Fold these 4 entries.
Entry 1:
Amino acid sequence: MTAGDQSHAGPPAKPARIDRRLEAPHRRSGSSPRIVERTALLAYRATSWVLATVPPKPAAAIIGRVAQASYVLWPTKRRWSNRNFANVLGLPPDHRRVRIAALGAYMGYGRYLVELMRLPTLPPDAIARLIPTLDVDEVRAIWEGSPGGLIMTVGHVGSNEAVAAAIAHHGMPISVVADDSSFPEIYEILRRQREGWGVKLIPWRNLREIFGVLRRREILGLLVDWGYRPDGIHVRLFGEWTTLPAGPAILAAKTRSLILPITIRRQPDDTFHVSWPAPIEVPSSDPLDLQRATQAVADALASTIAAAPDQWYSFKPIWPSTAEEAADLARRASLMQGNNADPGPAREFG
């Protein structure tokens, strides 16, 4: 769920070509060939059955190794993952610690996938127990105190599915925006499963229903680290210029909703700790208000990732591919603020 960056001043730098399979859903065009869709569906069902019956720890180890192999054998994916973790750690992309962090994240992703496949076999109360630290009364107070709905922004960290199910289990209406364009039949399976938990899935292009959730003063979950795109809202993330989707801030401004960035962190016992900063208000659709709110979302995302980089499993390109693009973002930010502030040094991109 994104919208154009209203602060754009001048044409953006031309983005470098990236592997289409790494693009976020809002950047892809067309659907997958039918044979690919059917193969993916059969593989999903078979994997779900195996992972629901095999003990979770061995299954997670196997899937984690497969995920690590994709990092090793897929050069484009490895390059983008290294750039992402290099920015998080403040190190060159070819640094040994960067590679170690990336491999750790891919192993963690394997564990997440196993848990995700097993979740449908658990009753809603068992899923809710995965989030023992959820302060239900505070979430309810923030939600009920919002003039509109409540937008929960999350990254690819922890188990967003378990958090949504826990919120629904406590009687709060929550919907989550999801990608239905790549594999519609798998999306339909996921939609039915989530409905069993009390969580509604909304296709990311269904703007009418997305606005409807907030106008009914309900809760909406949005992922914000889908991947870099030039027409998002410029922010600094780990000190480097990039963009985040404009959707959360625009929705909040138009529906008088609050934004609540959610931090999810895995605990040693494989439950998840959930916390949040103060809710973000977006007083208007003025570009400055949208940028400030989106920067606050970026700051919360950075705090989440920095606390446990190995738990971050977004392997899309999160930052621009060239120093020229980064400099263009800095220029746009400077023009918006109405000053000639030093945008900071450009990073070396290799």
Entry 2:
Amino acid sequence: MQNSLFNQSNPSDPICLLEKDGRAEYFHHFYDADESDHLYKYLLSSLLWEADEIKMFGNLVRTARKVAWVGDPECTYTYSGVQKTPQAWTHELLQIKHKLEQLTGHAYNSCLLNLYHSGAEGMGWHSDDERELDSATPIASVSLGARRKFGFRHKQDKTTCSIFLEHGSVLIMPPPIQEYWHHSLLKTTTVTSPRINLTFRKILPRI
């Protein structure tokens, strides 16, 4: 295992993923079971969850998956042709943000949360490379709820790599992963319970 790029504020060593063109790091127990349960229930009840809208072939399509966009007031974000205005930070989300900033050594000003009701809902192959995102800042992804399979696929040679994301875990995706890899939350018929995913990002100021 390679040495971690990040500060070792977490007592367990990370699992290192990807063998070329970037490296992801997975921390299995970023939060213990009790804290993970608390955060999951709190986020489920405290945020305004809305069906996502994405543009497909020029038409707006509403997804079964629900989303919440949270961040600093100036952090508007355009995803799949739809502009999103952030909800205000809550105390718990700020605590998660500060813990991730200690882990990665980078500052975050926004968080996109996804609510998947079951394994029938997933996310297709994509990269988090929208123009508003600071490409020098790692994306930090926290998982709460159901255990789900997450995959990487290289954009050129189609090499794949996958890992199961556990309740209370975090996946760090530093550059240049978004440049060379797609990633996906894979659908499954075996998972019937919900999952919340939080992806912390840094949005660049508008020029």
Entry 3:
Amino acid sequence: MKWQNALKDYQLYLNIERGLSKNSIDNYTLDVKKLVHYLEERQIPDSPISITSEIVQQFIYELAKTANARTQSRTISGLRSFFNYLVFEDYRPDNPLELIESPKIGMKLPDTLSEDEIDQLISAIDLSKPEGERNRAILETLYGCGLRVSELINLKLSDLFFDEGFIKVTGKGDKQRFVPIVETTQKFINIYKEQMRPHINIQKGHEDILFLNRRGKQLTRAMIFTIIKQLAEKIGLKKSVSPHTFRHSFASHLLQNNADLRAIQLMLGHESITTTEIYVHLDKGHLTKVVEQYHPRK
């Protein structure tokens, strides 16, 4: 079996059997491609079936010279998944990563913005430009609904249920959920949708996409990153800011205002409450209040 054929089969498995998104599939594939590149550079002829634990271990050793612990751990996890698939399909009897341990990494707490910093970023948008109202609606939606960037760019006009106070969001693995949307966010989306969007020459196939670029096509993830980065530079914000920062801030601010963790989990679309619990670690003040309010010996 050649690496290219094994990768194609693996991608189909991730898509059909596990229902992963294209971005997740690309990430898993990239981990395997790193190993393939290493083998090609050193003219090592081993196939996915014949490669040994020793060769994989040497690859991890070389990777450790340039990659941090988090990247190493991610690559090992991706490779382990790939070889587990080969074992599952009876292509090989064992997983060469069984005895390879991932480096220990500390929990990385996400960056968040204060309410004032979010207001500053949104206020820095130049509303005199054609894309100004769109960009304001984008940031208000990221923060107001806690969306992932992929969920934002795929948001459709037919996903807006403003009369009911919800939007329909398609998350990881094409799983859908309904997220509450406050009137303020609705207002800014409506301004863009009713006053600016009708003047765009919308390309075929993009008629239902909410946020469009100047050419009438769906925005890319990279464009959302660029918009936010430029605004951060404009106000002199020193924090590392990305679309995900607005999602983290959404969750953290809800928690600070005593929102239920289970409710936050549902709005974020986290499968496990454990993922949502990272926001508890961000707000130690919240933990103190909980103890003071509910502990019998307060």
Entry 4:
Amino acid sequence: MTLLEVRDLHVSFPTIDGLVQAVRGVSFSIEPGHTLGIVGESGSGKSVSTQTIMGLTRGAEISGQALFNGKDLLTMTESELRAVRGAQIAMIFQDPLSSLHPYYRVGWQIIEMIQAHEPHTSKTVAKKRAVDLLKLVGIAQPDRRVDDFPHQFSGGMRQRAMIAMAMALNPALLVADEPTTALDVTVQAQVLRVVERLQSEFGTAVILITHDLGVIAEVADDVIVMYAGKVMEAAPRDPLFYTNHHPYTEGLLASLPAYSGAGERLKSIAGQPPSLINPPPGCPFNPRCLYVMDRCRSQVPPLEQVYGDPNHRSACWLPHTKAERDSRHDQVMGVAVAP
């Protein structure tokens, strides 16, 4: 059963320079208990897509559907959305220090959130739940730390406190927007373990937005790759990493140390992402693509099934069979592809 299904989402922002087409026809879905990873460069539309679903892009021009348990989030009133946010869909952001109010104790903020959705819950009961949640996410001495201010927590502890707040009402969906970017590698791993543990205990679905493919490799079940407001490739995790189709996905993976030989320089994708006020005709990646063909510059490729796998789709004019795709790689790169 699909928990959330986003269909043909478009989000644009009017500016004095023109209309910024931040999200252009994005579609995806997620099932209960699964983790969907959304990756791409800064400005690709990852965060805008999920913030729009949560009703956080005021002033934007929006079209499409976002069906959560069969109800369209995009047509809900503000009061209806407030009932959904926190209780059924929770969100954690990249910088917990800007999400937690500096003037109020961490426990008070968790209590306030609980009582906002459960007004009949007493402060005593809500505080006990806040302590239990802080313990659940691995904060030592939670009965004492519950009365600390955010500045008394480390970065990793603040992020775990945000996860505790997000999970206070056992939401069906957790949206994590770059939750580990500002943390060191060790703390990143701790935060990801917390999310995984909570997911296994409560069956929560997770949308994880990141530019870190290493994080995606650890936790995601399915992945969508975004570029210039569009989905370039969508696949389960392993096919995306080992049998990717789109040149943009190939370029992202080639930039990782694990894909470079010993002593070799890391490979980057030449050029810059396009303007979303005046995106290029055809495939948005064509100005930077090593495989570019004439039709790429004039025709927008549809997101279609590749390699005979109904769960693997790519928006690219390259051949859709693996043998032909590998042959094109061999021609362009001059390096034979391992069978």
